[in-house]
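Researcher: Please translate sequence to structure tokens.
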Amino acid sequence: MSALISRVATAPPRLLLEALADAHFDSVVSAALLLEWREVAQRPKLRRYFRLDAAGVDFALTRIEQLSDMIDPPPAEAAAPDPGDAHLWAILAADPEAILITGDGPLLDAPFGPDRVITPAQAVEKLEASRGGVIEGA
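Model: Translation complete:
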């Protein structure tokens, strides 16, 4: 959601969205995660901050879904810090290479495992290091 709100092209969430669109990394989502994103995007309090209109937000979420691999993970054995985030822990448990990129403090404070839960800024750093250069915003 922060990528759809940010008006700064070089903000890490925006850079990550551009990098996903340019196929610089693989994305994994679940039906539960996509449903959460769509529900959050409908909140009137949040909608006023979007830099896109309703159709643009819907297009962006649909495009993220198209660019991502869909998985249907079983529940994780490890409990998420918030029961409402159990679907995120399930994705991490189902895919040992998956990394959760989030700005959610409780998720960052109780990470799933070493380097498995990182901030958008850390994700941009990892992408830049793996690509040998700077990820540029549009």
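Researcher: Any highlights?
Model: The helical segments are 2-5, 12-21, 31-41, 44-47, 54-67, 86-94, 105-109, 120-131.
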